[in-house]
């Protein structure tokens, strides 16, 4: 029987042809190769290398017995903690009723696109799942141009050009900063200018601030300060608290968008019902903060900053064009300078580049084509996360507590990243 042509197996046309999430795919491939005995340096999946803070882990243990279904919008105590976190960090008015909890911000983003009937505007390059989610739901995606000279950041002018031809068209703009995949972020002036255009066209602005707490200088600022009435802040536990597998995300809505929040809650009630009870109870400890959380974040930022600067310098010295990261744990190097040498080896796409790099060096990174670029744009995303996060925090807060971190720290705390750079350099030189 030809299953593909059997109507009983008629897969939704919006899903047919979509590959599994690129970041998860590279992680599974890396794990498979490791299981075969190959030494793979995993710079593909953007998973925080740091452990979940001790007090948050203890809170999870204390609440492991919690078994009741919680309210669809989330546990009131957690929603209060998140509202308090927003008031402290952004100095914005926020109440517990403005907060929606979900099993990861990824799920909440999917529900937002289901609940709001509008086009999706995404600056290129962007995280790998924004556009596929829109395609699955059947929404139109408009890629917004950005440029390497401007750190791959959206400008207010380019946003205005997209919106002005149909000024009343419903649209969701996703702004992700510090950025996955570039590690770059926006200045206050840039945010203000974008906010003014978003207000002009009454856009829904989804501000994906999942990496906000890992801004290297601890100076992240939400665009919601400049466009409060139309901005939804998205954050969670995965990137700044090391709890990716816990699957807890949150959206913070302005009062003006309460009907949209309510619509998403209806979808939640008919799909996942509620987010895991023990996880929600434990998350209160994370969002309430405290001196221990502040110290954890301080050392996390110190480590990520020095590692990002080291990797940036090594890649630049190899001949890649790469922007200096300001937050998160990503770099987006462009290898176009090697185009002729690569073509002589029949390597003409970013996908082929990453495949050849993996096969020849064991270094796993992701091609630019997964982030919205045409196949022959010879760039890639590198997640500098393959190191022992617990050990690095202990070292940074111990032996290196009173001194500036440098290459000696990176070599001691992150030897696999040093090895990855050595292998990449040798391979590029051999082309």
What brief labels describe this structure?
single chain; 431 residues; alpha/beta; Aspartate Aminotransferase, domain 1; Aspartate Aminotransferase, domain 2; 2 domains; seven-stranded mixed beta sheet; 15 helices; 42% helix; 11% strand
Task: Give a structural overview.
The protein is 42% helix and 11% strand. With 431 residues, it is α/β, with parallel strands linked by helices. Strand 5 (171-176), helix 7 (188-200) and strand 6 form a beta-alpha-beta unit. The chain is globular and about 60 Å long. The chain starts with 21 loop residues before the first helix and ends with a helix.
Count of strand segments: 12
CATH superfamily of the largest domain: Type I PLP-dependent aspartate aminotransferase-like (Major domain)
The coarse silhouette is globular
Most strands sheet: 7 strands, mixed
N to C succession of SSEs: HEHHEHEHEHEHEEEHHHEHHEEEHHH
Rounded radius of gyration (Å): 22 Å
Distance between the termini: 48 Å
Q: How helical, in percent, are the residues?
A: 40-55%
Strand order of the largest sheet: 2-8-7-6-5-3-4
- What is the CATH top level name of the largest domain? Alpha Beta
- The name of the CATH topology of the largest domain is Aspartate Aminotransferase, domain 2
Mean pLDDT: 94
**Number of helical segments with 4 or more residues:** 15
Q: How does CATH name the architecture of the largest domain? A: 3-Layer(aba) Sandwich
How many distinct domains? 2
